[in-house]
Amino acid sequence: xxxxxxxxxxxxxxxxxxxxxxxxxxxxxxxxxxxxxxxxxxxxxxxxxxxxxxxxxxxxxxxxxxxxxxxxxxxxxxxxxxxxxxxxxxxxxxxxxxxxxxxxxxxxxxxxxx
Amino acid sequence: xxxxxxxxxxxxxxxxxxxxxxxxxxxxxxxxxxxxxxxxxxxxxxxxxxxxxxxxxxxxxxxxxxxxxxxxxxxxxxxxxxxxxxxxxxxxxxxxxxxxxxxxxxxxxx
Lengths: 114, 110
What we know:
The complex is a heterodimer of chains A (about 110) and B (about 110). With about 110 residues, chain A is mainly beta.
């Protein structure tokens, strides 16, 4: 385990469908973050977990978005009733929670909603 | 308002030159300032980071300069190489939550 992994790497879906993405953090990291990045922009914070607890959600995260980290290891991000505006790169990052703020990013999941 | 302003939007330098990217912030609660490098289709990769009690940090060809009173920080890439061509993002963290700049696309010409 050398880094953060995300699955799938690419997802094409039709408007109105539900999609789910998975993130596996670095094994000893207890913080896990989700970001969204659109073309030409920096990543935007969506939500983060400390172990299994979801500590903060961005106002960007509508009710159609939900994230879980049930056992404090991997996390899933689900988008219900996808819209074309949801098309973006969804990035996951992880970090240790004490004494370090270094966040390590995964390769991202590119979502295209047609 | 948590915001980080990054400039320039794009930068072209000659091989061997110095690349300088600047960021400014407003929120004094930010307590950690990393820089990331991102290649097309990849996630951001952490390059170097600094805490606000330090004015400069150097790692290899990369240096961060930090001015707490001006609420500004910058990335200097010495001896820039074509392989450094990428998009660079500054970020600022408040209790672990990152706010990113909009990125600088660096092109290093051989």
